[in-house]
UniProtKB/TrEMBL annotation:
This is ferredoxin--NADP(+) reductase. Gene3D superfamilies: Nucleotide-binding domain of ferredoxin-NADP reductase (FNR) module (3.40.50.80), Translation factors (2.40.30.10). SUPFAM superfamilies: Ferredoxin reductase-like, C-terminal NADP-linked domain (SSF52343), Riboflavin synthase domain-like (SSF63380). PROSITE patterns: FAD_FR. It comes from Ventosimonas gracilis. Residues 4-105 form the FAD-binding FR-type domain. InterPro entries: Cbr1-like_FAD-bd_dom, FAD-bd_FR_type, Flavoprot_Pyr_Nucl_cyt_Rdtase, FNR_bac, FNR_nucleotide-bd, FNR_type-1, OxRdtase_FAD/NAD-bd, Riboflavin_synthase-like_b-brl. The keyword DNA-binding does not apply. Keywords: Nucleotide-binding. The keyword Nucleotide-binding applies. Its EC number is 1.18.1.2. Belongs to the ferredoxin--NADP reductase type 1 family. One of its GO terms (molecular function) is ferredoxin-NADP+ reductase activity.
Amino acid sequence: MNAEKFTRQPITAIHPLTANLFSFRTERDAAFRFQAGQFARLGVQKADGSLVWRAYSMVSAPHDEFLEFFSIVVPNGEFTGELSRLRLGDHLLIDKQAFGFLTLNRFADGEDLWLLATGTGLAPFLSILQDFEVWQRFNRIVLVYSVREAAELAYQPMIADLARRDYLAEYASKLRYIPIITREHHSGTLHQRIPVLLKSGELEQAAGFALSAEQSRLMLCGNPKMVEDCRAVLKERGMRLALTRKPGQIAVENYW
């Protein structure tokens, strides 16, 4: 990649969640612009001097002065192995352009919005939920977040705090949060995979209302198998991918 296409930004915060999950912040170049739900291309330099690039959705909102990301450490991973060794003050390379189509402009209409995430796929939905547009456009918002173990439930304080933000307080009643833990049993959570809960109707029961092709819009981000299986279930209910020239009910992120 040509050096003119990226900036070098220092890491300003690192927050470990588990042995394999952490979030981090960098400074934000004044010229960097993105829509909530988009991702950045991040680069690290290996010991041999070569560069490795990966796509990471922004957790931070478009109006924040920093960039925040949520990462898993892949064992022996070429990128995350290098990333996990970085410390405060070290620099990341960030492409000057934002990418991705997991944004609200994928949908021209809709009454309720379902955000279905596994693992670090939560990141773009946090950016969307911190932006004002989603609260104005949709009457009901359902955030579904699935992890294997309770310790992996990230950003719980941020999710709980959304209702207390001054600019969102009057809209707080629109949000329904449904956490899922698939390998442990905890009260207040569901325990099966998202596609299974979709097919059985249990997810709609937890949300308190039904999905419909006419009113519901869905965003999927996370494990590719989850995305594939959810799309299959939703297809049976008459829902299809939203394309530029062909309106639909589903938007997915494909950088995995």
